[in-house]
Design goal:
about 200 residues; 8 helices; about 85% helix; mainly alpha
C-alpha cells in the first residue's frame, strides 16, 4: 500500500469520525456522566462496531445493498428512531451522576456498537469509503482500511469522550448536568431531523 493511499485513508477516517454527529454527542455525554472507564468502553464499542460494519460492506455486503436499496431506507429510519429514543432518555435524565455499581455496566460497549449500526451516517461513510479505497474488492486492502479506521475512529470519538470527562468537573450539580443532557438531547433530535431530510 502506497504512503499516499495510507494518508488518504487516514484523512478520510479522521474527517468522518471527528466531525459532530450522534455518536460523538453520546460520547460527550458518556464522559460527563460516567467518567473514564465507561467512556472508554463506549468508545471501544463504537470503534469496533463501525469497523465490523466497514469490513462486512467491504467483503460483500455492498452488493446486497445494491440489489435491495430498500434496506438502506429501513436502516435509515431505524437509526432515526434510535436517535430519538436516545434523545428522550437524555432529556428525561435526572442529572444524577452514576454510582460506582452503575459505572461497571457492560452495556456501553453494546450501545457504542449499536450506535454505529443504527447510524445512517456510518453506513454512508462505510459504503463511500469502501468504494473509494478498496479498488474493486481487494480483500487485503479492505482489512488494512479497517485497521486504520479503527485506530482513528477510536481516537477521534475518544476526544469527544475526553471533552465530556473534562466538563464533568463543571457539571457536578444535578441541575447543571440535567440541563447539559437536555442540550445533548436537542442535538440528537437535530441530527435525526438532518438525517431524515
Amino acid at each position: 500500500m502506497s504512503s499516499s493511499l495510507f494518508l488518504s485513508m487516514a484523512v478520510y477516517a479522521l474527517v468522518t469520525s471527528i466531525t459532530p454527529g450522534p455518536v460523538n454527542v453520546v460520547a460527550l455525554s458518556y464522559g460527563t456522566q460516567y467518567g473514564v472507564r465507561v467512556s472508554a468502553i463506549y468508545v471501544t464499542g463504537q470503534a469496533t462496531g463501525y469497523t465490523l460494519l466497514l469490513l462486512l460492506i467491504g467483503l460483500g455486503l455492498h452488493h446486497i445493498l445494491e440489489l435491495y436499496p430498500l434496506l438502506i431506507t429501513i436502516i435509515q429510519w431505524a437509526g432515526i428512531a434510535f436517535l430519538l429514543f436516545l434523545a428522550y432518555k437524555f432529556f428525561t435524565d435526572n442529572g444524577q451522576l452514576q454510582t460506582s455499581k452503575q459505572r461497571n455496566s457492560n452495556r456501553p460497549f453494546l450501545y457504542g456498537a449499536l450506535m454505529q449500526w443504527l447510524n445512517p451516517k456510518a453506513w454512508l461513510c462505510a459504503v463511500a469509503g469502501i468504494g473509494a479505497y478498496t479498488m474493486q474488492g481487494n480483500t487485503l486492502l479492505v482489512w488494512k482500511f479497517a485497521v486504520i479506521y479503527w485506530i482513528i475512529c477510536f481516537l477521534s470519538v475518544g476526544c469527544w469522550a475526553y471533552a465530556g470527562i473534562f466538563l464533568q468537573h463543571f457539571l457536578q450539580k444535578p441541575n447543571y448536568l440535567k440541563r447539559f443532557n437536555q442540550l445533548m438531547a436537542l442535538l440528537l433530535v437535530a441530527s435525526a431531523i438532518f438525517l431524515a431530510l
